[in-house]
Task: structure prediction
Amino acid sequence: MLRLREKERKKIFTLAGELEKELSGTDYGREILCSSALLRLLVEIGRSCRQEGALTLSPVTPGDPRVVEWMQYLDRHLSEDLDMDALAERFFISKFHMMRLFKAQTGFTIHTYLLQRRLLAARQLIERGMLATEACYRCGFRSYSSFTRAYNKHFGTTPTGRAGLAKAQTEGME
Result:
């Protein structure tokens, strides 16, 4: 598992976005630019791996079946308002013990895990053509402004940035 600081994570997501853009394009020199973007991405990942504390040799899948069950529950209920007290009560465990065990097994807090899963789900919906506002609320965010801040921080672009560009390109072809 690779744990990145915010700066490195943004740079890697930006490079991945550039590669994705080139892969979907049809312009002259596309193959060369795709190779270049891929190499830049791999070099940045390699540099990030060399930083102290970036690599964790713990397994990606939690060893405790309770944590796996919690993750599956969270994934199935992303759109709901998930309260830590209610989760702990549902699984018959102390809230604080649950949070410590989850962090120890996954490397993430429950809140961070939920946030990342919701952002990824929203991104998939937006890429499939759903409006960003609808994806925001469908994936469990309570306010659009907090969603756009989190989305921009995580992916390095606004939720409408890439989708809006793709829509504009599609409309231009008609």
In short: Residues 27 and 33 are 10 Å apart (CA to CA). The two ends are 44 Å apart (CA to CA). The chain is about 70% helix and 0% strand.
